[in-house]
Design brief:
This protein is of the alpha/beta class. The chain has 2 domains: 10-258, Aspartate Aminotransferase, domain 2; 261-392, Aspartate Aminotransferase, domain 1. Helix content is 39%, strand content 15%. The chain contains 15 helices and 12 strands. It has helices at 10-16, 42-50, 64-77, 88-99, 114-123, 139-145, 168-177, 190-193, 227-241, 247-258, 260-279, 298-304, 320-329, 359-365, 381-392; strands spanning 81-85, 105-109, 130-134, 150-156, 181-185, 203-207, 221-225, 284-288, 311-316, 334-335, 345-347, 371-375. Bound molecules: pyridoxal-5'-phosphate. Pyridoxal-5'-phosphate is lined by residues 87-89, 113, 116, 156, 160, 185, 187, 207, 209-210, 219, 221. Residues 87-89, 113, 116, 156, 160, 185, 187, 207, 209-210, 219, 221 line the site of pyridoxal-5'-phosphate.
């Protein structure tokens, strides 16, 4: 489907791309809660099933609300095609099932979402896909890990929770030189702050559950890229295996996309204020935020992203006891591991999101017992600071 807003600004496309009005002339995007579609006659049914005529058959394959979300997200990421999935994890699963085969090798950043690591190590490995892990920011170790059967490089940038930033242009050059795909989980920045395809990535995956929804309501995901790989290979897996996005969730995510640009800017402004405030706080040891001048990839983040995002990690003086004391003192912040919400959340990565990571791997990834992660929401920043000050005063 052509994108009639192709030459317009990001914020415009976020509001309008992908909508095709029906004969009812509705203003907002309609929600098509239907599992199947009717045909005019037997001939048309046969033509649809044989592929001679394009059109809706069944919502595991296509649904107009889901398609609107796919077209809008593809436009925002600058991709030819997008497919929506039931979750971020099924977006990652569908990508690998659609594109790789038994005997293929994956090189992955070791700083990835914990469940993605379980997917690689426990499940994809059962079907003959092997994964090796490297440091996100160490280009030489990516190069060394590539083998003749390596088909994909996989990463998240910025990383969770340390906000390390990968050089996407350099990794894309490496991937191309070795004839493998660069697959980027763009969950933390979203296309509002970073468009990996424009920096040479081949595939972008999303957990729409986070910032794309932005208000903590629905689970969903998406894959964006070229017509062949995403529109055919990955879509083919999706329509067969069925981790399809529901039209209700697609509608919710469409509403999320409409405010994505504004929200990501606002999250980033507040996160930078918070990071600077924490950095000068006597009870705080280290702050991990790529917007701070002292961050090791500050210059790269400035070049690659239009802002630094809403996630701030920091270490307090003391260990787990001090970190938990701070969490238990908050009155407004939500104690939950979810992120990307309008509500600010606080979590202790070592015992929640990264609890299943081995002690050695935690050391390797720099996740300590004294570390806390905040997903900075859209409340008044002063109120977030007051809430954290309560706990910091006890340390
Ligand atoms: C949450 C998350 C996922 C998984 O997404 P779900 O929607 O929970 O399945 C994948 N990658 C990153 C970076 C995430 O934060």
């Amino acid at each position: 489907m052509t994108d009639s807003y192709k030459n317009q600004g990001f914020a415009t496309r976020a509001v309008r791309a992908g909508q095709h009005r029906t004969n009812e002339n509705e203003h907002a995007e309609p929600m098509f809660l239907t599992s199947s579609y009717v045909f005019d006659n037997a001939q048309q049914a046969a033509a649809r099933f044989s592929g001679d005529e394009v059109g809706n058959i069944y919502s595991r394959f296509t649904n107009p609300t889901v398609r609107t979300f796919e077209e809008r997200l593809a436009s925002l990421e600058g991709g030819e095609a997008a497919v929506a999935t039931s979750s971020g994890m099924s977006a990652i699963l569908s990508t690998f099932m659609g594109l790789l085969s038994a005997g293929d090798h994956i090189v992955s950043s070791r700083s990835i979402f914990g469940t993605t690591r379980v997917l690689f190590d426990k499940y994809l490995s059962k079907f003959g896909l092997e994964t090796d892990y490297v440091s996100l920011t160490d280009l030489a170790s990516w190069q060394q890990a590539i083998k003749p059967n390596t088909k994909a490089l996989f990463l998240e940038t910025p990383s969770n929770p340390l906000n390390e930033v990968a050089d996407l242009a350099a990794l894309s050059a490496l991937a191309k030189a070795h004839d493998c795909l660069l697959i980027v989980d763009n969950c933390f920045c979203t296309p509002a702050l970073q468009q990996p395809l424009s920096l040479g990535a081949d595939i972008v995956v999303h957990s729409a559950t986070k910032y794309i929804d932005g208000q903590g309501r629905c689970i969903g995901g998406a894959v964006v890229g070229d017509t062949q790989r995403v529109g055919d290979d990955i879509y083919g897996f999706l329509r067969t295996a069925g981790p399809t996005m529901s039209p209700f969730n697609a509608w919710t995510f469409l509403k999320g996309l409409e405010t994505l640009d504004l929200r990501m800017k606002a999250h980033s402004v507040s996160a930078l204020i918070l990071a600077k405030w924490l950095e000068q706080h006597p009870k705080v040891k280290t702050v991990f935020y790529s917007g701070l001048e002292g961050h090791p990839q500050h210059e790269l983040a400035k070049k690659q992203q239009s802002a630094f995002g809403g996630i701030v990690a920091f270490e307090v003086e003391g260990g787990r006891e001090a970190a938990w004391k701070l969490i238990n003192a908050v009155e407004m912040l939500s104690i939950t591991a979810n992120l990307g919400d309008t509500k600010t959340t606080i979590t202790h990565p070592a015992t929640t999101t990264h609890a299943r990571v081995s002690p050695e791997a935690k050391v390797e990834s720099g996740i300590t017992e004294a570390m806390l992660r905040i997903s900075v929401g859209l409340e008044a920043i002063e109120d977030i600071q007051v809430d954290l000050q309560r706990g910091l005063d006890l340390l």
